[in-house]
Amino acid sequence: MPILTHLTFLELYTLEVVDVSFLEHILKCMPNLVQFTITFMVINKVLTNIIDALDGQFWENLLSRRAPHLCKFDFFISVIYTGREVVDLDDIIDSFECFVTRYDGWHMAASKWLTCLLTRRKLKFD
Questions:
Q1: Average pLDDT, the chain
Q2: With CB atoms 3.0 to 4.6 Å apart as the test, which of 16, 80, 99, 106 could cross-link to 43 if both were Cys?
């Protein structure tokens, strides 16, 4: 892949992520990235395929190595999970705390929603 040194903004949408290692290759080609927005929309029965995408420390490591000039990182993820594994949403949210404590001026806002498929209502957890 070519190196795109003039590219400073990337907005990426992805569906059905099997492995997030592709992000390493994409960001390697954009060394001067200043703003990065990524949206994951995943329908998955097995969380092991996307577990890195849910880990804030994975993102901190990836972005510090591959996007050293980054000033803005927007991360949106929508997961429809139909498996039986228990998912602790607080652990996922807490893993992104590293962005707030380590980087001055970074702001983090997190929302957790549970959609009831039977009633089509959304319930918000604070």
A1: 77
A2: 80
